[in-house]
Amino acid sequence: MSSSSQSLELLFTFLSRSYATLETNFFKLPGSAVVARYVKSSHQNDPGRTLLEVILIIFAIRTLLQSRTRGDQSGKHFIQFDEKEIDELVDEWTPEPLAQPLTPEEQADLASVPVIVGPTGPKPKLASGKTVINLASYNFTGLAGNEEIKASAVETLRKYGLGSCGPPGFYGTQDVHIQLEQDIADFLGTEASILYSQAFATISSVIPAFCKRGDVIVADRGVNFAIQKGLQISRCTVRWYDHNDMESLEHVLESVEKERKKRRGPLTRRFIVTEGIFDHDGAMSDLPKLVELKKKYKYRLILDESISFGSVGRTGRGLTELYNVPASEVDMLVGSIATSLASAGGFCAGSHIVVNHQRINGTSFVFSASMPAALTVAASEGINILRNTPSILSALQENIRAVRAILDRADCITIPSHPASATIHLQVRWPTLQVPMHTSSSSSPSKPSNPLNVKPRDAEQFNIELEEKLLQDIVEEALAQGVMITRAKRLRGQELVEARPSIRLAITSALSRKDCEKAATVVKAAFAKVIGKRR
Amino acid sequence: MPSRPSPIAFQSASPTQSMFKKKSASGLSTAASYLNAVSAADARARTRSSAASSTASTPALSMSSSATSSSEDTVLDEREDFTDGLSYPRTPPTSSQVFTTVHSEFGHCANDDYRYTSRHRAGTPYKSYPEQDPPYYILLTTYISYILVICLGHLRDFVGKRFRAANYRHLLPWNGYAALNSDFDSFYTRRLKLRIDDCFSHPVTGVPGRTIMLLDRYSPDYNKTMVPTGTRTRALNISSYNYLGFAQGNGPCADAVETSIERYGVSAGGSRLECGTLDLHHQAEALVSRFLGVEDALISSMGFATNSNIIPGLVSKGCLVISDELNHASIRYGVRLSGANVRMFKHNDMKALEELLREVISQGQPKTHRPWKKILLIVEGLFSMEGTLANLPVIMELKKKYKFYLFVDEAHSIGAMGPNGRGVTDYFGIDPRSVDILMGTFTKSFGAAGGYIAGSKAVIERLRLQGHSFTYAESMTPPVLTQVIASMASIMGITMPTEKPHSSSSLALLRSSSSDVASAMSEADIIPGTAPASALPSWMPLAQPMIDGSDGRLRLSRLAFNSRYLNRGLRKLGFITYGSDDSPVVPLLLFNPGKMAVFSRMMRTRQTPIVVVVVAYPATPLVTSRVRFCLSAAHTKEDIDMVLRACDEIGDYLDLKQGPGERWPVEEVISRAVEIVRAPEMAC
Description:
- The complex is a heterodimer of chains A (535) and B (684).
- Chain A has helices at residues 2-28, 32-43, 47-65, 71-74, 83-92, 104-111, 147-160, 168-172, 175-188, 200-210, 225-234, 246-263, 287-296, 319-322, 337-340, 352-361, 363-366, 373-388, 390-407, 464-480, 513-534, and strands at residues 116-117, 125-126, 133-134, 192-196, 216-220, 237-241, 270-275, 300-304, 332-336, 346-350, 413-414, 423-428, 483-484, 486-487, 503-506.
- Chain A is of the alpha/beta class.
- In chain A, α11 (225-234) links the parallel β5 (216-220) and β6 (237-241).
- Chain A starts with a helix and ends with a helix.
- Chain B folds into 3 domains: 7-132 and 552-678, Aspartate Aminotransferase, domain 1, CATH 3.90.1150; 136-185; 268-535, Aspartate Aminotransferase, domain 2.
- In chain B, α7 (303-314) packs parallel to α8.
- The chains are: A alpha/beta (535), B alpha/beta (684).
- Chains A and B meet through α5, α6, β1, α7 and α8 of A and β1, α5, α6, α7 and α8 of B.
């Protein structure tokens, strides 16, 4: 008994001694007093509290130790495999071929593209040896092949070499680029402008430079592919209004405003994105109304004038000149140098703030080499010519009127394009009785389309394959008669809304009125022949 | 540290041009010693080459008959200082040397020792030069400087918004409009980048060749606005992407382009599928595929858009793209447009790649666990900010095992790497046909613009129809096409037909369609192939050095020498550089953000100005700010010497020499240049 109590006592003294040394040693540690005070105050004679603390500490340590690099593996969908199983799965996996070989139709489609031998222009020579009237190439103002432009391009080539060999940020900004930016800004009457080296890459870079996640964009349902891609990249909230319908636009603007008020969300950037003359069908926007609406609802306007710049207005300044709206009312005015000034590249004109912002945030501006100097000077020269020769634009408009006068009367052609548009889209018109797949959208216009959905409520119905085939036959028929025209090529399946197949004519001022009339007659006859045969 | 004026003094804020022309005493002494060293090195080199009785190497451009000149039209400023060695060589050419290039565009260098062949040594694994970490104090000061600048910026914003509201209006909601660019979004640009904005977007004029003409500017308001002074300064250009030196206003390529402008004008008028296809397009595409040694190629009018418009045609939803974390913005843009899933792996880390491959193949698509339709690995051949090469030998092995498709972006490596200039596949000795998609640009090595995609016929034809470029984007313009054709033919060499054929009939045949051209070309299916004369436009003037390929060989070997010399020279001096020894892109690590501006300004305001590119976050990780040199075949050895001396001087001043290993004084590096370049492995 005593021995056991003695040994117990020994144990207790040992325990208390070791506790004492531990305590003194603990208090020797710097900052230990703080820890002790913390433990004391947190314990407060309640073991539950201490337990909670301990659990918290363990949890914190566990979180810290957990590997953060393999986020996916810890996900609940992750399946654990051992090495052998992975090897088997790897062996088993057979990927699809990188690209499906072309079908015979696609092959024919690719082969049907005419090849121009020598310079393009109003009457180019084709690989078949034939000289044709060109109603397909973008050369509205007839600047392609202009001798003055050629001379200044050669002169620039000798001074600058060809390539700019660098992005604008790193010694790729040449004085000729600054000059062309100034020329464009002066020509349009904006504060500044910025050059992109490809027209197609311009707006798909301009939109995401300004519109971020959470911003609101109200866009036309018929916008071109480049805009669609810009909207996709920007990741912002997109609302759609009916193609070229200002009433629908106002509806959508109203509903967005209501939605915002309801949610009491913060003020976000809001943009209206549309085109001057639409690439899909040649329709023209009502710019004064657009500007009125954008001001009323406090939106900014991004206007793609890729087709209209250089083809409408007294000297080709585009929609702003045609409607006499100051270009400064359009916040971001995007245009193509390639189509209108017969050179290469695109631009965005606007205020200094808008332009300078893009110099850092415009992806395809920052990460791409700037335009070759010779092409830049060619564009400057082109602007100069347009400015001094209003007769070019009047000749162009006269040619457009001449072509329209003939084609408007044709009973198997529908033309959705504006009468002043230099691109004329020709669609197949089916006789009213024989409309198996085409119902006109006249039914109940009272119900507006859902702005969240890019597809309109009463979508036009058409058989793409059939119409494209017919149109291709017409193109080939016209080519046989010496007129080069083209279908409006689109990436079927990749466009948000499938546009009705059409033949796109691009009128040029370089042709005489007589040639235009002749060509239009050929096109009309080709339509009559191919469609008539089908009937 | 030597007593010098504060770094601010190097800012180009002073409108006087005298600072560029002024010769300080130290400048003179270095120039004199430099001259001595150059002539000594030249003499040594000459005796060595004559002793070795050079038989194999081609004489430098001595075929043509025209004399050494710096033609008047390229000398943009008559008041130029001719003693700086930029416009005219310091040592005038001897009577036996004939140079056909303008020295300011393409330097005169007759010494055949200053040549090298860019090639991976077979049998050795590729390993990039190990990335060295700087001492901790450098890292610490780097972080501190960022924190300081950020705090200061926020303070200025805070005070500014209250006291100078008008200046901040565009950053704040106003009149019912949200700010176009909120103060938070633009903070980095306004408060960090603006401080050193004088180092970016410097306007230039003239040929961006070996030298470049700067349009001087100054800022009266701390870089908010830049005012041109109206003066010009010629500077050594070690910044432009001009690897093979084809940025020239004179010479056979420029002659060809001039002829094409006169013939074709400057426009092709529309997209490729909407009647914007010229015969030149087919010729260029056929030549590109021949150059690369693959079946077919397509070209696009903009380099950035080549990636961003074509990748969506390759992959779609249900496909996986595995992308190197440092891939170019255009690749990311294209992948985002495609809707495919993306996974990234650590830069050039083949182990991480294999692990990732095993994971994604075994797991399949997220949630559904269905197998991926296809997996596309996208890497860059030569990474433009790192100078590292894609580890193709290992990737090819992984490709066999894991069956992914390989897309190599050769924007920087095509023309610049490999014994024949065919890019990284050539450098590593890999069959180009084993890579599924070869992408590259014409901006860098060919002095043109735009890009190409090359691969098997089936893939390319599909991309012609399904990529965005051919349907919507404008086609490449004739002058650019001609520059591509001429420069490429010049690298390849041209096989002249043995007997004079009826050129008209054969050309008509070639022009009829691209498939005919391809079949005509496949007669000699050798890699690297030469350009058959029949495939070139019949009107194109051909010069002798182009035909025998000596021009191309000279450019390639000069670039290879220059790249290796600068890379290894800088390391020998003690700098930290990244990347492969053979890479023409040489990043020199600066770390501290403040040093970027000072480095750039000091280089630009030297007696012989040198322009450099400085890059920092977001193009690089936050701490590794760097200066990037882009070498060119146009540079002479004296130019590289000059860069090395400048770096040495500034490196001492800015405490940049943090690299490990043995260090040599700069004069020793310069005098033993050939030895440095030819050493198979450099001890470090």
